């Protein structure tokens, strides 16, 4: 079966295109031929049969994709409508509650009558003794303005009822006007305020759980993970999320899980650093997670990570020089560099022109700086002070600082192991 379609070729002639319907292949396209060629013209197909099949299959794919896209757009439109309805409902509830509070506060204090018995008001025409409010006369028999007639009381009651009716109508009118006048910007401000308040409470809870035991650290990690969608663009949230990944890396036994937590945490804090490179906390936890991730790498990568660690800790101290956490981390770095093994030192010397250098004395100075800024900042800090004194041969000071460390709780396995090691060596 063939159908003819005219197609303009030039201003003076037309060509006819043929559509060929094949039982097996479906719709096919034949070449355009001039009308003047007559019925005897030979029609050669523009596409061979296999190419026609490919074109039809691609068209089917395009049509299916368009249908799926329309469906997704419709679902998105419906979800946005539901979200808008929820937002409007929350705003309306907030405004209604505000209006209720406003109405309750219309007379925040009880009325005080200027003609009370204890008043020296000019409405007292005369008084030679204590006032008597029962009959409206003073002890001396003179009538005062304190006396009220039944008509006055009825008038006041009716006046108050009228005020209540007017007030109710005013509240309803203001409520309608308020709903009409709430702009999109004001709605965003209200929502932002609510999110900010929720963020403050969330961060406080996360800090408390971070300072707790292993189970509380796990709860803190899950808490932050559950709220990532809402606060992923907040600096203070992101560095705490990275800190929680570091906590999970510390308390997890499996090596693969440790690597995974450290890697994921590093990715989170990298995002934060791209936006807030002036945040000391972001630099701190980037350094920590780089160090944790390097523990599972080769010697070369560990040494490279050491340079990165030192760079970011120095930056954190520059941004926040009174933060004891940064000095504690720098002390840890100095102590580890001072105790590099022979192979690590040779590798560093071969790979880098200026290999990292630090002494136990450098580490001790940083740990003592921590105690100066915040006495009892951490048990780990005091344990490392004891280690430094022990390495320097001052056993008396080492014992003193171990006793001071024992006064503080051990929140990490590393601290408990360090304490046990020093105690065993001291025996």
UniProtKB/TrEMBL annotation:
Residues passing through the membrane, by range: none
Keywords (A to Z) from UniProt: Coiled coil, Cytoplasm, Cytoskeleton, Membrane, Mitochondrion, Mitochondrion outer membrane, Nucleus, Transmembrane, Transmembrane helix
Segments for region (Disordered): 102-169
InterPro entries tied to this protein: RMD1-3_a_helical_rpt, TPR-like_helical_dom_sf
Superkingdom of the organism of origin: Eukaryota
Compositional bias annotation for Polar residues: 116-131
UniProt GO molecular function: microtubule binding
Sequence ranges of Acidic residues compositional bias: 157-167
Main location as per UniProt: cytoplasm
Location of the protein in the cell: Cytoplasm, Cytoskeleton, Spindle pole; Mitochondrion outer membrane; Nucleus
Family in the record: Belongs to the RMDN family.
Name of protein: Regulator of microtubule dynamics protein 3
Species for this entry: Athene cunicularia (Burrowing owl)
Gene that produces this protein: RMDN3
